[in-house]
Design goal:
Length: about 210
């Protein structure tokens, strides 16, 4: 069972998402919060696996709250569910470790699928936001050299750019799921990133691989 915490100051939205998730046998909403102030307390009490969090909330920005969550509870997955498709919000969220970024106009099934995906350790980014990465640049310190990645790691990284899951990468490269996880761990370390989505952003912005 995937335990979900809803963090949004709009009651009607929380009620809608709760009703949606109650239809799923493998997902349950364990709690709700209207602000970022008590999120850490809720995590301690309810032990959620995934948090759906808005950006624009009273008292504290959702991205700031998410950053605190990631520092204190790195195993908890966070999906930013927001109406904002601005570059600065998106990039900030990914840089702080968000596991997913969805817009509130996303289809209901996409939200459900995103919860399952991040619970499996994958990342989910709204398609319109992915396109923005190609024209956006972030200054990075200590950018790794391209030859730091092995040929196999570059193949795995290519698969990440294609949006493939661990299982799909394993099937495409004829390796085991465990081997994929090992490669991803090494890639994250070499690129100095924390997640699949951050690896994709870093690869595109620093032209680590030739883009198709």
């Amino acid at each position: 069972m995937i335990n979900v915490l809803l963090v949004d100051d709009h009651t009607i939205l929380r009620d809608g998402i709760r009703s949606l998730l109650e239809l799923e046998k493998d997902i349950q909403v364990v709690g709700e919060s209207v602000s970022g102030r008590d999120v850490l307390k809720k995590i301690e009490e309810l032990h959620p696996d995934v948090i759906l969090m808005d950006i624009n909330m009273p008292e504290q920005n959702g991205i700031e709250v998410m950053a605190m969550v990631k520092r204190q509870y790195p195993a908890v997955k966070v999906i930013m569910l927001t109406m904002y498709n601005h570059d600065e919000y998106f990039i900030s969220a990914i840089r702080e470790g968000a596991d997913g970024y969805l817009l509130k106009d996303a289809p209901s099934q996409q939200v459900v699928d995103a919860i399952r995906s991040v619970a499996r350790g994958e990342s989910v980014i709204h398609p319109s936001m992915t396109k923005k990465l190609l024209d956006f640049h972030i200054q990075k310190r200590d950018a790794p050299q391209r030859d730091e990645l092995t040929e196999r790691e570059k193949e795995v990284l290519h698969c990440l750019l294609e949006g493939l899951s661990n299982k799909e990468i394993a099937e495409k490269l004829f390796i085991s799921d465990k081997t994929v996880k090992i490669h991803l761990s090494k890639i994250f370390k070499k690129l100095n990133v924390k997640s699949r989505s951050q690896a994709v952003i870093h690869t595109i912005q620093n032209q680590i691989l030739p883009l198709q």
